[in-house]
Amino acid sequence: MHKKVNIKTIAAELGVSPSTVSKALKDSHEIGVETRARVQAFAKMYNYKPNSLALSLRNQKTMVIGVIIPQITHHFFTRVISGIEFVANQKDYNLMICLSKDEYEKEIQNIEMLTNGSVDGLLISIANETLEKGEFGHFERLLNQEFPIVFFDRIPPGIQADKVIVDDEAGGYNAGKLLLSKGRKKLGIISTPEHVTVGVLREKGFYRAIQEAGVEVLPQFNVKIEEKFDIDNQIDQLFTQKEFPDGIFAVNETYAALAMKIAQKRGFHIPRDIAFIGFTDGVISRLTTPTMTTIAQHGHNMGNKAAELVIQRIYEQENDKTPYQTVVISTNIVEREST
Is pLDDT at 51 greater than 80 in this prediction? Predict the structure, then answer.
């Protein structure tokens, strides 16, 4: 049977300090690669694992990060959470995940519950209703108290804070350029209301691409989806008029998939009659028939970076605060059968 070890016994066995052992077990780059490998191998041999309760008591931390997302149904948010968890677990952190259900009041309730001593920091993607109201006082109060908070994907405009965003405008621009490169001239777009910033930016990039080419979008080919109403009926109007688009960009893959299904029911062939591009590159994009061309937004990378930023904020000293950062995650086109 292996003897029971702790940080002090590992340090004594290897002839290093306890702090070196502690940092090596956390894979800190302050410690040399060879020393880290020796410490980690020794710990593995004796099945040593840090006592997370003792660590949290000593550091006066919960070792938990709160995550608030609008909904769990989107593949994108599952990828973000996967990225957050990967980094958090490396730093001995666990996650507490809450859903705002895109509701302003639910978002506030989640924040009040999580910040009542339950977590050391927060990662938040804002609810649609909050963006529509434009009321961000619950975030400003946290920031004024210097509570560690990082926004990702959907962010509050005009608030100084750490943010991790996708390069939405570039994604929309590349979608427009791809449709144009396929010889499409009558372009349409399925977007979101003005308060949903990610949709607005994707639409802005799309319009920039086609304006550079001297192409216009007819007003009836621009559909802004109001999710409280029947989405299918709103999309269907693109295909029931005398003239219809030959290329459509949708600002998320759900809208694109619905539009493809409706177009096919109306007798259109994809991509011969109409080419489609979505945004996200989740499971839906690979399961449509034909498979969907999308803009990949790399949710796992976003989660990684958001977790790194909030943990950095958690461990910063009051007199050593770094400036707020906005990290932009690049996109790329994943071309499939729909174009």
Answer: no
